[in-house]
Amino acid sequence: MHTFIRFFLLALTVLAPEIAFAASGGESAGEVTIPISPFNIGAMACVAIFVLSYVAVLFEEKIHLSKSKPVMLGAGLIWIIIGIIAPKHGIHHDELREAVFHGLIEYSSLLLFLLAAMTYITAMQDRNVFAALRGKLVQAGMNMRQLFWATGAIAFCLSPIADNLTTALVIGAVIMAMGKSDKKFIALACVNVVNAANAGGAFSPFGDITTLMVWQAKKVTFFEFFDLLAPSFVNFFIPALVMSFFVSKDLPEPLNEEVSLKPGAKTIIGLGVLTIATAVSFENFLGLPPFMGMMMGLSLLMMFSYFIRFKNQFDTKKFDIFTLIERAEWDTLLFFFGVIFSVGGLAFLGYMELLSSAMYEGYGPGFTNIALGIVSAVVDNIPIMFAVITMNPEMSHFHWLLITLTAGVGGSLLSIGSAAGVALMGVSRGHYTFLSHLKWAPILLLGYIAAIGVHYMVNSHLMAY
After folding, report:
1. How many CB atoms lie under 10 A from the CB of residue 464?
2. What end-to-end distance do the CA atoms of the chain give, in Å?
3. Per-domain residue ranges for the chain?
């Protein structure tokens, strides 16, 4: 906690002169929504509430308080303060309602998209799709180093579709089954999988919430994400290559894990692919938001669940789609609500414009986007990306891809920097820890720098757009 506070105070010290200049009407300043000083007591209280709520999120594992609870409370308190001080500055209730409903539009579109995607993932888990994949890997007869490469490669390829958190949990189960008491192998393989899952998720709008946000904000189109394939691969490959030399070629203990797919599993996989295609087609060809395609795909899954239940009506464990919806990551979905409305409140106060002037105009988009990627190793990439989208700085297509890359893979530098790392720490039974990940941070940083270098080499022509 002290480290976080020192970091925040340092950032405030560096940025304060730039913010003060912007607020005083300098050339780099944007128009502040409420004409008040950023150091007004009410406005500063909103910033303090946001920081405190996020400190609680950082210590979720220690205080056992779900991350959605403090940020939702913080969002409510921020808007209460805004509601109190706004009339004193000539802001009417209608304008407040318009600002809140703007955030609601942002949140509801992402909520519906993610709810459909999570339900499909849960349905595949219910039908043993991922368990069967784990069983195939366990029985493949590979040695430890081959298994290290296989789990990393599968994580890199699976996360663009199944998201980085689900991928890390599925592949992490394989690592735990094969590694057993080999603590060194488990730690190394988990570091590799976290890095691979985050890297794979960076070049797909389905790979991470941040990439989904960029896609739905229309900063990057679906097929333009693949411009990040080469940088993302380098981000995975270089650390994996170095770490692989520290993995033995011994054979793991033999295991006999036989898992069969449940009825309808292959059809659900096909419907999932069709749903993704529908969402992309709605956006590219019909001009409709992607969540419409996802919800239509969810309706197909719901109809198919009726068919499965009808066909297996005597089965006591029926395939109930509404039960699967209940098992969605509601803590994450509600956390996202808190983030959007907290950042939206700070944006209404003018802080996002001030920060945009201080950072993007003061230091340039290249330096800022790279630095924000490193910050995402400590602070979750969701509020960082939403803040950037809310700032909406004038950036080339190249730099929108850069922040997408850095926010996606920067979290790999620390185990707490991504949902994938936090989840694996929870299930590894002490074999994969913060310190075991931190040991390889310099190698992961090398991959991060190399990925940025490759992006500058292969995508430099996009700076003109």
Report:
1. 8
2. 41
3. 110-465
